Amino acid sequence: MTQIATSLWFATEAEEAARFYCATIPGAVMGDIIRLPPGGPGPAGSVLLVEFSIGGAPMLAMNGNPGEGFTNAVSLSALCADQPELDRVWDALLDGGQAQACGWLKDRYGVAWQLVPEALPRLMKAGDEAQRGRVMAALMQMVKIDAAALEAAFNAS
Fold this sequence. Notes:
Helix content: 25-40%
Protein name: VOC family protein
Radius of gyration: 18 Å
Largest sheet: 4 strands, mixed
Structural class: alpha/beta
CATH topology of the largest domain: 2,3-Dihydroxybiphenyl 1,2-Dioxygenase, domain 1
Number of strands: 8
InterPro entries: 3_dmu_93_MTrfase, Glyas_Bleomycin-R_OHBP_Dase, PhnB-like
Pfam families: 3-dmu-9_3-mt
CATH architecture of the largest domain: Roll
Organism: Neoroseomonas terrae
Domain PhnB-like: 3-116
Number of domains: 2
CATH class of the largest domain: Alpha Beta
Strand content: 25-35%
Strand order of the largest sheet: 1-4-3-2
Shape: elongated
């Protein structure tokens, strides 16, 4: 069976970024670090590829990016168990990064993330159209998502 992994291409920060994500995201795990052999396209022994996983999903961080930056066209979405987890992960990822809107941010490496509390997909699948509409309207006003405010919008009359 074919295995799919998300691959993030860095200039030289692959190991640093992988270690940062594993320290920041609950359940993330470092894997192998593959180094360049002599005669490779860079200094022998330097990091070529780092294997890690987030939430059981395989991830690769690779060095050698010729200058192409990350864009919002591809992002990592993290479903957080509760508001305290979302707040902790948001603050860590935002350190050196930039907040955007509706739970989106770019981290210090330029990788786009959307941090979502479990309440958002749950509320968007529940209730009636008016309730879901109020949740969406509340979400559109947020930078970091506030689960309690989404719940309040859903339950408003």
